[in-house]
Amino acid sequence: MAVLIDTPVWPWRGRLWSHLVSDTDYDELHAFVEAELGIPRRAFQGDHYDVPEELHAVAVAAGAESVSARELLSRLLAAGLRVRKPRASAAG
User: What is the residue extent of each domain of the chain?
Assistant: First the structure.
């Protein structure tokens, strides 16, 4: 049972971002984000929250496990919590 965060290397709108996930369930993730980071629930991205670089250390201090992006994805997939985007149809 863990909340995981990867390194803030994902650029968007002039900032670097991390992904925050749970390898157990979404309830654990939502509770952690609400209690520790103050990120609104509407920011949930289907299977993760995007966390700005300045909150990375806050998340780790609150108990999130810092892992590589590869490890985060592997554990999210193993937990069956990865939401994949539907592929666009080639037929049009």
Answer: 3-78
Taking the model in full, what pTM does it have? 0.85
**pLDDT value at position 80?**
82
Cβ proximity of 3 and 58 under 8 Å: no
Q: 24 and 31 in contact (C-beta within 8 Å)?
A: no
Q: Which residue has the tokens 């289907």?
A: 46
CA–CA separation, 20 and 58 (whole Å): 12
Q: Which amino acid is at 91?
A: A
- Owner of token pair 């980071």: 37
Q: Is 21 helix (H, G, I), strand (E, B) or coil?
A: strand
Q: What percent of the chain has pLDDT over 70?
A: 89
Q: Residue ranges of the alpha helices (H) in 1-92? A: 26-32, 56-61, 69-78
Residue 43 identity: A
**Residue 5 to residue 3: CA distance in whole angstroms:** 7
